[in-house]
């Protein structure tokens, strides 16, 4: 319990508004719940959220200590009252989430709270599976990430050993990551392998594909297979053999077939014809193709997880 005495500058404020100012990490719906449960008392008694505070009033707050902290990136999850997660699979060690397009994996300069990782941490905190005050170093973390406007499966570890194993399996290419994409035109040949070297321009947040090694460039390889063509478009399945920034988008654009809706690597006039405002790219399947020992995660060996519905497939290739 923490106690506050209302001073002259706070007198006249509503109780709920005083709480919002004093505890910025406390979500408004949770603050209202605490008021209803009388975990917020004014002069030793329960109160209403719209009561006007008077100078000298004593407030007793029976609220978890973490809500009294100053807002920071590492406690932003406390501000999430109702986590929004599309869970593909969950067990005691990990989560597989279907990230919706438009949602950031991690915070950036503009968005600090509404990110996939804050929703995951809020979900596990509210389930009482994780409490940062009980941990010295570990926080639930993502093992892979995808672009803001790309949707699909993202892996999250609930404990440090799971994070270590999954990161190693990704580095060793023992976790298969499969994407669906819609391209302009037709690939020739209809199935094959795209290889090259990607060099990122940090200022433009854009990568360029080179056929030969360049200073600072990273090798990139993608397997692809055309599943269907219609109306000047192709539905393609891609398997990432490497995991570089904008790899699929840049490689297909360099091959002359940019992704539908991709304003960075494609042409706006081509995208407008089909009414697509962001890239038609989805991480729809993940396979735990372990070829070496996976320790405590060995039970996942050979398992595959798939997202059932991908919006652009249904929109441009109905029936697939």
TrEMBL record:
Keyword Isomerase: yes
Origin: domain of life: Bacteria
Active site: 147
Domain RNA-binding S4: 13-73
Known catalytic reactions: a uridine in RNA = a pseudouridine in RNA
EC supergroup of this enzyme: isomerase
GO molecular function, one term: rRNA pseudouridine synthase activity
Keywords on record: Isomerase, RNA-binding
EC number per UniProt: 5.4.99.-
Entries under Pfam families matching the protein: PseudoU_synth_2 (PF00849), S4 (PF01479)
GO BP annotation list: enzyme-directed rRNA pseudouridine synthesis
Function: Responsible for synthesis of pseudouridine from uracil.
Family affiliation: Belongs to the pseudouridine synthase RluA family.
Name listed for the protein in its UniProt record: Pseudouridine synthase
Lineage: Bacteria, Bacillati, Bacillota, Clostridia, Eubacteriales
């Amino acid at each position: 319990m923490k106690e506050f005495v209302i001073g002259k500058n706070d007198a006249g404020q509503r109780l709920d508004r005083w709480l919002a100012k004093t505890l910025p990490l406390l979500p408004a719906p949770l603050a209202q719940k605490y008021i209803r449960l009388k975990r917020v008392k004014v002069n030793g008694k329960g109160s209403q959220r719209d009561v006007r505070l008077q100078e000298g009033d004593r407030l007793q707050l029976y609220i978890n200590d973490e809500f009294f902290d100053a807002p920071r990136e590492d406690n932003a999850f406390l501000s999430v009252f109702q986590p929004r997660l599309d869970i593909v699979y969950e067990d005691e060690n990990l989560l597989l989430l279907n990230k919706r397009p438009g949602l950031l994996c991690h915070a950036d300069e503009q968005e600090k709270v509404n990110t996939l990782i804050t929703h995951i941490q809020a979900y596990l905190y509210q389930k009482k599976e994780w409490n940062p005050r009980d941990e010295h170093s570990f926080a639930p973390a993502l093992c892979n990430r995808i672009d803001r406007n790309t949707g699909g499966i993202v892996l999250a570890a609930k404990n440090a050993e799971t994070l270590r194993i999954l990161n190693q399996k990704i580095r060793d290419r023992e976790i298969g990551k499969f994407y669906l994409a819609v391209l302009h035109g037709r690939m020739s040949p209809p199935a094959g392998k795209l290889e090259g070297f990607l060099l990122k321009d940090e200022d433009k947040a854009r990568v360029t594909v080179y056929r030969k090694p360049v200073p600072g460039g990273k090798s990139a390889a993608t397997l692809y297979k055309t599943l269907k063509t219609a109306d000047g478009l192709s539905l393609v399945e891609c398997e990432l053999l490497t995991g570089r920034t904008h790899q699929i988008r840049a490689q297909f654009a360099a091959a002359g077939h940019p992704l539908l809706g991709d304003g960075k690597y494609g042409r706006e006039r081509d995208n407008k014809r089909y009414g697509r405002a962001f890239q038609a790219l989805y991480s729809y399947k993940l396979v735990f193709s372990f070829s070496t020992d996976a320790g405590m995660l060995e039970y996942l060996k050979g398992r595959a997880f798939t997202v059932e519905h991908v919006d652009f497939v249904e929109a441009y290739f109905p029936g697939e």
